[in-house]
Amino acid sequence: MAQVKKAAKYVYYFGGGKADGNESMKNLLGGKGANLAEMAGHPKLKLPVPPGFTLTTEVCTAYYNNKKKYPVVLDAQVKKALAAVEKEMGKKFGDVNNPLLVSVRSGARKSMPGMMETVLDIGLNEKTIEGVIKQSGDARFAYDAYRRLIMMYADVVMEKAGGIEPKGGKGIRKVLDEKLEKIKHKQGYKFDTDLTVNELKALVKDFKATVLKVLGKPFPDDPYEQLWGSIGAVFSSWMGKRACEYRRIEKIPDEWGTAVNVQAMVFGNMGDTSATGVAFTRNPGNGENKFYGEYLLNAQGEDVVAGIRTPAPVNEYSKNDQSKHLPTLEKTMPAAYKQLFDIQKRLEKHYKDMQDIEFTIEKGVLFMLQCRVGKRNGVAAVRMASDMYNEKLIDAKTAIMRVQPNQLVELLLPMLDPKIQAATKPIAKGLPAGPGGAKGRVVFSSNDAVEWASRGEKVILVREETSPEDVDGMHKSQAILTTKGGMTSHAALVARGWGKCCIVGCADIEIHSETKSFKANDGTYIKEGDWLSLDGTKGLVYLGSMALVDIDLDKNMAYKNLMKLVNKTRTLKVRTNAETPEDAAHAMKFGAEGIGLFRTEHMFYGEGSEQPLFLLRKMIMSKTEPERRKALNDLFVFVKKDIKDTMEVMKGYPVTIRLLDPPLHEFVPHDVSKLQALSKELGISMSMLRRRVLALHENNPMLGHRGVRLGVSYPEITEMQVRAIFEATAELAKAGKTAFPEIMVPVTCTENELIHQKIIVDRVYKEVCESKKMKKIPYLYGTMIEIPRAAIKADKMAEIADFFSFGTNDLTQMSFGFSRDDVGGFLPKYMDLKVLHDDPFQTIDQDGVGELVKMGTDRGRKTKPNLKVGICGEHGGDAESVKFFHRVGMNYVSCSPFRVPIALLAAAHAAIESGKGK
Ligand code: ADP
Ligand code: MG
Ligand code: MG
Known about the structure:
The protein is of the alpha/beta class. The strands form seven sheets. It has an eight-stranded mixed β-sheet. It has an eight-stranded parallel barrel with strand order 27-28-29-30-31-32-33-34, surrounded by eight helices. Strands 2-1-3-8-6-7 form a six-stranded antiparallel β-sheet, with helices on both faces. The longest helix is centred in the C-terminal third of the chain and has 25 residues, at about 625-650. It is elongated. It binds adenosine-5'-diphosphate and magnesium ion (MG) (2 copies). One magnesium ion (MG) binds near residues 358 and 370. The site of one magnesium ion (MG) has 2 residues, from loops.
């Protein structure tokens, strides 16, 4: 016997306390449809939702798979659902005496703001309008609805979906809108609501004639043609150019399709006891648990969002500068407000998250038109997660997952006053390299920055690019603005590390260093001393001095509360890259559990570097070992103090100290007075000194005489540093303090280098133990893994090393063969053309470099199961990378102090996502 296949269900009804669908069916019903069903039909909600039905996303898919034809059963299913709506409303679609009007609304699985279309007031024509007037007793309202329908229909269905290119770029909506504006202007009206019935009547006539003239087709009077035309327009908007582009960026697959919601109209434009509005169950700006929203009296649909009139606040709490004089909904319609207030409470409790809701009040009666999880900024996200956990609305894991790691950045830095910023036009735009806001007076050199700052001036350093010599000036500046360089340029890296506001690659401005000035593309001319304000989060440059609002993390109880949960959940430890006691202390306050990278050479840059740098240069220019040892002896004092101070701050947490890494040529002086001082100190002639300088020249210093290679050529350099480390540790121990150094050998490629250096370490260790009369000094000996060969030979490296720290900056550089300092020349193009999808210096390349990291970790642990493994590259502060390092099984990540909170949260996310949390 042949089986009769049951026809697929393409239409889902909701209304009157019932619904075929529910919230869990977002894939089939779209976000809007699923939530309308939930609000209307869930036994605990049964909210006043105008009845309607949803055409599923499967209709959309079938439509596109079947040459834009609907499934045959659709028509019957729509008729049946429409009949149910008619029954619920006690009206009939297309009826002359008591007509039902409907809206057709799009609704994809994931919201696609502004991409999809809505048509309201469907079912109105020359005949049904009489019925509407009779039923409502309000001709003005009826014609207002009619002109809205013609405008939306002509725009959405006839022009956009009809594929008509507007003449001269001016769409039909604009053409019609200008007609409305003309009347308002002529009559001296301020608002749409000022128009009289007769004016609206005339306008409708004019609209119809215009539509016919401009689009070559009449506006259809048949209600069913209007309905199917609108449904078809929503489905075709799914494949519209705008929507396709948006999906590509947001990685939403085309196959998802959109649903279509057909819903009985309720009217917020029926006079002064009617209104429409949007609201949030909590303040999305700061997270406060206060009902927050706006409404418009006598208005319909998107009037609120469109900004035609200033919306009024729903309650006292929602007042702002523009709306403070307007009457609240609470005052004008106390009963409807109370009902709305109770419903939003119930909705939030039901969904267990902040809801963004749309409502309409028709002659004092409230209707719910939409709800969804509300968008929020970082500050609000933290506040809500913490509060909702305290209120026992959500559990710890949910609270943690509610905040995206990068959202924390907003909590850490001062920012430009958002109100003032919104009212100001930027003069230029660059890449957002260091977040937060800053203001200061423009200077064009590091020396000027230092000099001005010493006079108490706040400055912004503007340069084409920066280099290590600029570090001091950068440090003294409020912010850095460069015209060249990318997100991984020197300026960007340094600024991010400090949490300093920074904009790079700002091609909108051109610097004239001779006149100490710059000119922006928009013509603005800026000279030294002029005020600028920067928004490093968005990469925007403003003229003048804008107010900043400060953020004190210590006072942020919500943040502290959330971090407590984070620390209970994560297994991956987080350390910091720090080289001064101040940086270290800062990172500790943020929750760092050690230093993962202490660069010994930092003391040769910036403030206070004069003397150690001179001694280092003396050492570099030495020809013989005795000469070199003498210089090293003097330097020893500085190195030891530096290490000791930092270890003291770290109170026994591990401190990974990297032995001298940069190529020596980087420190060679070039200016004459410095050379003269050196020649005098060394007792050699200038020409002899010059010869030594030349001898140090390298063609490719980054791959030259640096890192462990220095220690192999000049063992006394290693010896001095190791002695400083052991003595500092011993002295701290003697003073009753704990310290735990980890000696890290950089740029290794073979275990023999590690063996060579270990012999020196062992000898010095014995000597210091004896001289300090200590039986033992705690320490670990390990290496940085930053050359691919070291990762490949990790099993051998682990025979000597107690720990690995992956230096993923160099490992990326050497794996890709991309010079980190030169990627600006080609990487942007690579990303544009999708040759590469992400900047590998920002997010670890999991497939390639990540594979090396994983292999190195596994091979190392095969030799030494307890091998401590961490990472100290920029990637340690990147949330996606942190999650990867968790999965690889690392013990810790290390990042700059300001990224510590982000890494902590990312580590907790990783633990929850992998089901391996505590
Ligand atoms: P979007 O997805 O762009 O928010 P919507 O489908 O929510 O579009 O429609 C926009 C606005 O139209 C809604 O905010 C609501 O005010 C109004 N609207 C939609 N359907 C109806 C209806 N049945 N009755 C009254 N107003 C409606
Ligand atoms: Mg909406
Ligand atoms: Mg390196």
